[in-house]
Every structure is written in structure tokens, then in C-alpha cells.
Amino acid sequence: MSEPTGKYSITMPRDIAEAAKARGGPSGLSAYVTAAVAGQIERDNLNELIHIAEAEHGPVTDEEIQSLRDQLRQARHEQAQGGANAA
What we know:
mainly alpha, single chain, about 90 residues, extended
């Protein structure tokens, strides 16, 4: 079942509204704006979690971020190799 909806009035620059309408396609401007706002809310929530975690544990260093990226890249590579070998 779909969430209940409401009708709202927003103001935005015309060029942005026209670009959003064009990209909304058959789903329309409302669906496009809804998806954009939902995505922003997700990012805002993640940023809040990051701030809370950094307040408790200290900031994540560039080295830690790079190490995790390397681990992810390696895991993806191994997964791709496993999938290629299975074929």
C-alpha cells in the first residue's frame, strides 16, 4: 500500500523546475521531486550518524578511509573473479 500523500506548494528557479519536469518523464515532476527529497533526507540522516559517531569515537582519518576503500575494491575484485570462474 502506498503512503498517504499531500499537496504542497514549493518555489524553485524555473530552469531547475523545467529540468526536473523533463527528467521526471511519465512519472512526472512530483515523483522526481519526491525521489530527490527522499535522497537528501537519507544523506542528512547519514551525516547525523557520522557526526554522532565522530563525537563518540573521534574523526575517521584519511588513512582509515583509504584502507576501507582498498578492502572494498579487493572484495569486489575477488567476487568478480569468483563469478568469472563459475561461468
